[in-house]
Amino acid sequence: MDLLPNPAIEAERAADTQAYTKRIAIIGAGPSGLAALKILSDTPQFKAGLWQPIAFEAREALGGVWLTAPPTQDPPETPVYDSLTTNLPHPIMQYPSFPFPPSTNLYPPAATVLKYLQDYAAHFDLEKLIHFNTRVDLIEWDNSISRWHVRTKTTGPDGSSTIDTADFDLVIVANGHYRVPYYPDIPGLSVWRAAGKVQHAVWYRHAEYKGDTVLVVGRGPSGIDIADEMSAVSKVVIGSQPGTPRSDSADGSSKLRGRVVEFLDVKEGVVRYEDNTTDSGIDFVYLATGYEHSQPYLPASILEKSIPPPVPPLPEKLYNSKFHIFPLAKHIFPLTRSVPPSSLAFIALPYRVVPFPLAEIQMRVVVKVLEDPTILDPAGEAVDIISRYEELRAKVGDSDELIARVWHKLDEQEQFNYEDELLDFIGEPFSEWNEKVPKWLREIYPRKVALRAEWRDIVSRGEGKAWVKGVGEAGGEVGLRQWVDLMFKLLERVEKRHTEVNVETAKMNRL
User: What pLDDT was estimated at residue 430?
Assistant: First the structure.
């Protein structure tokens, strides 16, 4: 299968990788862009001046979604709401190369994560490689020289702007996928939006009275948090998630429903669900329905904004379905005729994953391919993509939209298996852990919901600071082990609590 636009140039690249200084453009200086800079700056090529990475950041500072901002733009620059804390404990969430400080709250707020990213950049001296207030407007592939023309727009302090164009050997897309809101195609939704009764969660910052009855569509972490907070200012909060049985709390203030299939009378606030039941009197709706992939700087000749055609064969160019980028080797490299795989890399596209460590691992893979483009096997990667397509089709059916929705979804152990595969490709383990994905991580991650609930209970009792005081001070592997021991201790509390509840239940049943 011939997937490269110019095999001769690709072979020449592999034969003489140090023929000239390679310039690398990174789009974004959030967590993924910072990981890209860090891994590249570790290389002997960077230290010898043979690789020159530059990150272009549209905002005034680093941090990506963790750099909070009021929701004044359309869409807002970040979806982070005032009360947000991480939904993973930081020893799991952190970059393998850089721990959170000792005694950090196990589930830190956004401000702590931003400070962590700033410290990460300072520790590895990355900020000098970032151009702030600089938006990438267009990247075009020039096959004659096997380079990208990258056009940027820099905004000055006085509001003036400067347009620049430069050539790069590699472009790394690290602009994230949590800004452009996704609006599901539900009949009647546009009418409700026009009436001002619907708002996407990207605009949410804190609970405000929107009426007595509020519907939150989506039960991911943000949807659950919004529903919890709105219960303090609303009489009734309804949560909607596909496949959820209809249920009400004893006092009727909290309700769960299945997927919304139609927004009906907007004045009466009527909504119909997948089980054909309805609710009325809904005053306001928050859509916690996720976000679209957005790469507006890539021209349609390279990235077409639509759902790709069924495979096989693989399409000749990339597709952005809103839900995934396709086809990509290893969820990273384009496998099309449009551009060589080694010239473009997408970082941290998978979701339901631990993104910070994944970004570092993926960047190690990018470095390996940049060193030797021939290490990628296009035919073998194509087979892997087609195999995944068939596996997902067997799970979700023949709908290419449904396949697109779950393409980058790596649930539970699947993400760790993927990381192991990447580390095998690199040919080296995590040096910090002396293994690939460690056993403790595989054991704790599936219990993350119970772990977070237990921690919230501890914090509500005012005991959180005492629990983490001094944890991690040993540093290195010993410091990490201190955090791991703490998390297992928390899980022991969970087990003890469940055992006590079961004993009490058994006693009541005998009465």
Answer: 45
pTM over 0.90, yes/no: yes
Q: Which of 253, 287, 321 corresponds to the end of one domain? A: 287
The answer to whether position 139 is within a domain reads: yes
Pick from 398, 426, 454: which residue ends a domain? 426
Residue 493 domain flag: yes
Mark 149-179 as b/e (b = at least 16 C-beta within 10 Å): ebebbbeeeeeeeeeeeeebbbbbbbbbbbb
137 contact partners, CB below 8 Å, separation of at least 6: 151, 152, 153, 163, 297
SS3 helix, strand, coil % of the chain, rounded to 5?
40, 20, 45
CATH of the domain at 69: 3.50.50.60
pLDDT band at 427 (very low <50, low <70, confident <90, very high): confident
DSSP-derived secondary structure for 117-182: HHHHHHHTT-GGGEETTEEEEEEEEETTTTEEEEEEEEE-TTS-EEEEEEEESEEEE---SSSSB-
Q: Is residue 83 part of a domain?
A: yes
pLDDT tens, residue by residue, 210-243: 999 999 999 999 999 999 999 999 999 999 999 9
The amino acid present at 10, given as its one-letter code, is: E
Do 13 and 145 have their domain in common? yes
Measured in residues, the chain has a length of 511
Domain assignment present for 410? no
Angstrom distance (rounded) from CA 478 to CA 484: 10
Are 242 and 169 in the same domain?
no
* pLDDT tens track for 109-159: 999 999 999 999 999 999 999 999 999 999 999 999 999 999 999 999 999
Domain hosting 241: range is: 189-287
Residues 165 and 99 in one domain: yes
d(CA 425, CA 114) in angstroms, rounded, equals 32
